[in-house]
Write a structure and sequence with these properties.
Blueprint (H helix, E strand, L loop, with lengths): L2 H14 L3 H7 L21 E2 L28 H4 L5 H18 L3 E2 L23 H17 L3 E7 L12 E3 L2 H8 L1 H10 L3 E4 L3 E2 L2 E2 L4 H11 L5 E4 L7 H7 L11 H12 L4 H18 L12 H15 L1 E5 L12 E4 L24 H4 L9 E4 L9 H12 L3 E7 L18 H13 L3 E6 L15 E6 L5 H9 L32 E3 L8 H6 L17 E11 L3 E10 L5 E11 L10 E10 L4 E9 L5 E3 L4 E3 L3 E10 L2 E10 L22 H13 L12 H13 L2 H7 L6 H12 L1
Parallel strand pairs: 1-2, 2-3, 3-5, 4-6, 4-15, 5-8, 10-11, 10-12, 12-13, 13-14
Antiparallel strand pairs: 6-7, 9-14, 16-17, 17-20, 18-19, 18-23, 21-22, 23-24
Helix pairs in contact: 1-11, 2-11, 4-5, 4-12, 5-7, 12-16, 14-15
Bound molecules: beta-D-glucopyranose (BGC).
Length: 757
């Protein structure tokens, strides 16, 4: 008996002591954040709380945004953490969340959130990792492992395709199977199989017409049967409207409580035979097992880390995640000798988190105005607020221009406001507010050097001002210590090493989902299919402001000696040596992309399949080794309904970003099937020509058969070509009918059998 079997058996034993009504009651929350418990029978109630980057309202049974929610540490959001490209760090942040959860009495943290960024307008993009499923999945798995190793459960959300906030309760994501598997489910699959989260949250929206909370294909067929998920499926808050349908589809726990309404419906369904007691038992046992694993147990030691250590960790994660997008003439790092104009309200009140259920009530946060004192004397710094809200304020603008014109460098703190980035609604534009656009334009006109410091959880349009500023530092939404981390980088205490986890497009009109977002009449069609993020920009050869994976350092790296080894056609090890050729120590993120050199189905030019972040002292070299497995070379075959690898060579591109490939190496793999083409009697003749025997028969037939005219005149080369093309495009069956016996039924069956092998 495995440990899993034992704990499931123990749960069933506890279950046996409950009446049917008590079992049914377990399947719905006791309140907004608590589950039902029967402590006298050894079944503890659990507290669930947001999540994902700090402990939120649930900890005290508060409603979202309630000012008297308990305070907690706000770590960098997933959109920020993902720019670290650092699994160890993600795991550490996960463990820190567990420490915070235990301090607050929370048993399950509602995170990580890991929906794909289909459009940069998504209101909750700040809560999600990336436009790439591999990066999202690997980092989410690390967060999950970290949190659960700290004795606290996680809840991967929102399963699945909750890629927009607009109409999130009612919209149906209409998606083809390839995009579903390769793009939208892939990250969840990695997180579930690698991270083994305790719970998964079913989303509000529908997928291909079926609400996620009633979607047995997603919740049972794929999540449990294919991926082996063994934990509790919980509904998003209020996503269940028919608890019987949800229970049958695979939801174990409805949250929050439906005040007995769901329970009454389940009792009726039990009477009518619509659900069986075993359906109730199965879900209830999973909930009991979860509670036995995670509900606060007195014997658990309090978390080892102090609050001060965790606050410091929030800063380290931000340092590792901030992306230096641009740095003309080595504007950064700044010397500590000159004068600096700190401009923009965010220098005083940084935006470090987004709105909605993820909101954390912090006890304190760092500000640039205070932090700059670590680097400069008071007489070297002046501050101007620059803007107040979104509308241009002439007086504030004049003051900012005056301050900037007297300083050696202007640090411009700009970004998106709280009102534009939140759960519940999407953005309408990629643009910065008018007030800030005016500020950037006027400040850079008078300032000898301008550094734009961006606070935002999703992509903004940099085009209007990009070329006119000297440096751009992207802080994302970096948690409560982000201002300290930013100045550590600005003044060179820390060498930046973040890389974008999302392409920065030149215009909204260039983005992949532009034509099919946000949908209408309750449907949004994912017509761009698998062409999401860089997969789309690369295939279209579109210029972008910053490609996926981009980020500058204060040093430079050379890539040497790339090599790859294939082990038994199963795994591939890629190795490359990286030399730090600058004068500063720094971290490089080595990225490995895979391309199928020749594929039957359309496949992206490159897909991220491995990465590693390595610290390299100045002048030294480090060799990194990245393992890829067979799945990393596969595509979802819609015809066979499974992952398939096509035989042939694959190019492994190794680089500094998706558009800065420094080395490549080819590997040869044996595929899963002779051909991925559909091979049957309706297949065109050309699909059979790779069969030597058959090719000869076809050639003989063509030579002997007058297909044009009466055969008395020799065919011109053009006619010859037309005949060949026509025959090659003909279904095999048609060729047989025309062949006057040259091909028998048996010949055809044989060649089909040979090629299908
Ligand atoms: C959000 C979830 C969140 C839950 C509880 C829902 O509205 O979509 O992400 O965990 O509320 O706050």
């Amino acid at each position: 008996m495995t440990q899993n079997d034992r704990s499931r058996a123990a749960a069933f034993q506890l279950l046996a002591g409950l009446t049917i009504d008590e079992k049914i009651a377990l399947l719905s929350g006791a309140s907004s954040w608590q589950t039902v418990g029967y402590p006298d029978r050894g079944i503890r109630s659990m507290t669930l709380s947001d999540g994902p980057h700090g402990i939120g309202a649930g900890a005290a049974g508060e409603l979202i945004g309630t000012p008297n929610a308990p305070t907690a540490i706000c770590f960098p959001t997933a959109s920020t953490l993902s720019c670290s490209w650092d699994r160890v760090l993600a795991r550490t942040q996960g463990a820190a969340l567990a420490a915070e959860a235990r301090r607050a009495g929370v048993d399950v943290v509602l995170g990580p959130g890991m929906n794909l960024k289909r459009t940069p307008l998504g209101g909750r993009n700040f809560e999600y990792f990336s436009e790439d499923p591999y990066l999202s999945g690997r980092l989410a798995a690390a967060v999950i492992a970290g949190t659960e190793s700290g004795g606290v459960g996680t809840c991967v959300k929102h399963f699945a395709l909750n890629n927009q906030e607009h109409d999130r309760f009612t919209i149906s994501a209409e998606v083809d199977e390839r995009a579903l598997r390769e793009i939208y489910l892939r990250g969840f699959e990695i997180a579930v199989t690698e991270g083994r989260p305790a719970t998964v949250m079913a989303a509000y929206n529908a997928v291909n017409g079926v609400p996620c909370a009633e979607n047995s294909r997603l919740l049972t067929g794929i999540l449990r049967d294919e991926w082996g998920f063994d934990g509790v499926v919980v509904s998003d808050w209020g996503a269940v409207s028919d608890q019987v349908a949800s229970l049958k589809a695979g939801i174990d726990l409805e949250m929050p409580t439906s005040q007995g309404m769901g329970a009454a419906a389940i009792r009726d369904a039990l009477k009518s035979g619509d659900v069986g007691e075993e359906d109730i038992d199965r879900a209830a046992a999973r909930i009991i097992e979860l509670s036995s694993r995670f509900a606060r147990q007195e014997h658990l030691e309090p978390a080892a880390s102090s609050t001060a250590e965790l606050v410091e960790l929030a800063r380290i994660v931000a340092q590792q995640s901030i992306v230096l997008l641009r740095n003309e003439r080595n504007t950064l790092p700044l010397a500590r000798t000159g004068t600096v104009a700190l401009i923009g309200e965010f220098a005083e009140k940084p935006r470090f988190q987004g709105g909605g259920s993820s909101n954390v009530n912090v006890a304190s946060f760092a500000t640039a105005r205070t932090e700059i004192g670590r680097f400069l004397a008071p007489h070297q710094v002046r501050y101007a607020r620059g803007y107040d809200g979104e509308q241009v304020d002439q007086a504030l603008l004049h003051e900012a221009v005056a301050v900037a014109s007297e300083a050696d460098v202007a640090l411009l703190f700009v970004g998106l406001t709280e009102m534009t980035e939140s759960e519940g609604f999407d953005r309408e534009t990629l643009s910065l507010p008018e007030s800030q656009l005016a500020l950037i334009e006027q400040v850079r006109a008078v300032s000898p050097r301008t550094v734009v410091i961006l606070h935002k959880g999703s992509v903004v349009d940099v085009t209007p001002w990009h070329d006119t500023v000297d440096a751009i530092l992207d802080l994302n939404l970096g948690g409560q210590q982000v201002a300290a981390a930013a100045l550590d980088i600005v003044f060179g205490d820390v060498n930046p090493s973040g890389r974008t986890s999302e392409t920065v497009p030149l215009r909204l009109e260039d983005t992949p989902a532009y034509l099919d977002y946000p949908g209408a009449q309750r449907q949004v069609h994912y017509r761009e299919s698998i062409w999401v993020g860089y997969r789309y920009y690369d295939r279209r050869k579109l210029p972008v402001a910053y490609p996926f994976g981009h980020g500058l350092s204060y040093t430079e790296f050379d890539y040497l000696d790339p090599r790859a080894r294939v082990h038994d056609d199963e795994t591939v090890t890629v190795e490359v040596t990286v030399r730090n050729v600058g004068v500063r120590d720094g971290s490089e993120v080595v990225q490995v992309y895979v391309r199928d050199d020749l594929s039957t189905v359309p496949r992206p030019d490159r897909e991220l399949r491995g990465f590693s972040k390595i610290w390299i002292p100045a002048g030294e070299t480090v060799t990194t080794s990245i393992d890829l497995d067979r799945r990393d070379f596969a595509f979802w075959d819609e015809y066979r309904d499974r992952w398939v690898i096509e035989s042939g060579t694959f190019t492994l591109e190794i680089g500094h970003s998706s558009r800065d490939i420094r080395a490549h190496v080819g590997v040869e793999l044996t595929g899963d099937t002779g051909t991925v083409e559909i091979i049957d009697r309706r297949s065109p003749v050309r699909h059979f020509l790779s069969d030597p025997e058959f090719a000869v028969t076809v050639a003989q037939f063509v030579a002997a058969t007058p297909l044009l005219g009466d055969g008395s005149d020799a065919l011109s080369p053009l006619q010859q070509q037309i005949v060949t093309e026509v025959i090659n495009g003909m279904p095999l069956e048609t060729l047989r009918l025309l062949s006057r016996g040259a091909f028998s039924d048996e010949d055809i069956d044989k060649v089909i059998a040979r090629l299908s092998r």
